[in-house]
Design goal:
alpha/beta, 6-stranded parallel β-sheet, 12 helices, about 30% helix, about 20% strand, binds zinc ion
């Protein structure tokens, strides 16, 4: 089967609501979750716009927009949110009652020259840097992968001195390693099999690597943890097998934080999870809630999640970027329109 992504001309981005902004995209990227529709979406007349991670410059704002203005350099979380409803106040911006996700039905997407951003005040975060700042790759990860890795670690209840395992060596898993170390985990085991990704995981602070799969992987993690498994598991894949492994390596009373988009209706290993009192938590990361917490570490160089980008393409070459990520030639592709 030949998989293709295509570049198409669409109508210029414009303001539709008084709470909108139009953002000229200066950096975007291809997400591991973009590879699911890449592999499975049926061809259609209208196609589907893709991309939900970006940094850009505000070019126009609606009449009701108060906190962002033309010329601001902004990072865009993958979900838009009003910043004022009950769920936004609870830090769960992905459940905003006026929110939604970029790149879905009538909402613009980010692998583009520009896009309309709904709920601009609640959604966009103004960055204190110029549009070509050297920190751009790491700042761009605040749009999704670094916030998502952090969410997995929070959901898995990572804490000081504890043992953690990360299932998946994609960009989110690698950011999960950073997040786990940042929250104080002493032992961080990465489960992955790609040499380049494992090397980066070690640089990010992983202490052990498990490249076996299935029951053998579970066995190896138990050996590395005195026979019991880890306190916290970050599940960063979303497949049945990865969830089975995640629950298999959690110690009794431990927690699994899942951020890989589940590709199955039902959750596997329900009975072992029950008998070992394992908490399974997680979901789409409210990355808007985490930007304030993570930004100082990026600006001051304490974390460098932008190292997950190992290829840069222009808009014309976005289809090559999809192919490279799908073939595991690239960890994560940055798009520079
Ligand atoms: Zn809200």
């Amino acid at each position: 089967m030949i998989l293709v992504a295509k570049i198409e001309d669409v109508r210029d981005a414009r303001l539709l609501e008084p709470t909108d902004a139009v953002v000229r995209v200066t950096r975007a990227c291809i997400c591991g979750s973009d590879l699911w529709p890449y592999a499975t979406l049926e061809p259609s007349e209208t196609g589907r716009r893709m991309g939900h991670e970006a940094i850009g410059v505000v070019e126009a704002v609606g009449a009701d927009v108060r906190t962002v203005k033309n010329g601001d350099v902004v990072v865009m979380p993958f979900a838009f949110s009003d910043g004022s409803c009950v769920f936004c106040h609870e830090g769960l911006h992905t459940s905003c009652i006026h929110g939604g996700f970029f790149g879905t039905s009538d909402i613009d997407a980010a692998q583009a020259e520009a896009l309309r951003v709904p709920q601009a005040d609640g959604t966009l975060f103004v960055l204190p840097v110029g549009e070509d700042d050297a920190l751009m790759p790491s700042l761009l990860t605040l749009s999704d992968v670094m916030g998502t890795g952090h969410h997995a670690a929070v959901a898995a209840r990572v804490g000081p001195g504890q043992t953690t395992a990360v299932v998946g060596d994609g960009a989110v898993g690698l950011c999960g390693v950073i997040a786990a170390r940042r929250l104080g985990a002493e032992q961080v085991i990465i489960l992955g099999r790609h040499a380049d990704r494992i090397a980066l995981a070690r640089e990010f602070g992983a202490t052990d690597v498990v490249s076996e799969r299935g029951d053998e992987a579970v066995e190896r993690v138990r050996e590395l943890t005195g026979g019991f498994g880890v306190h916290s598991v970050l599940e960063c894949v979303g497949l049945e097998q990865s969830m089975l492994t995640a629950i298999g390596i959690a110690r009794p009373g431990g927690a699994v934080g899942r951020v890989g988009v589940p590709q199955n209706e039902t959750m596997p290993a329900s009975q072992p999870a029950f008998y070992d009192n394992i908490t399974v938590s997680g979901g789409p990361a409210p990355v808007r809630a985490y930007i304030e917490e993570l930004l100082p570490d990026v600006l001051e160089g304490r974390i460098r999640p932008g190292r997950v980008f190992d290829r840069v393409v222009g808009l014309d070459a976005v289809p090559n970027g999809y192919r490279a990520m799908n073939d595991r030639e690239a960890i994560k592709v940055m798009v520079k329109p």
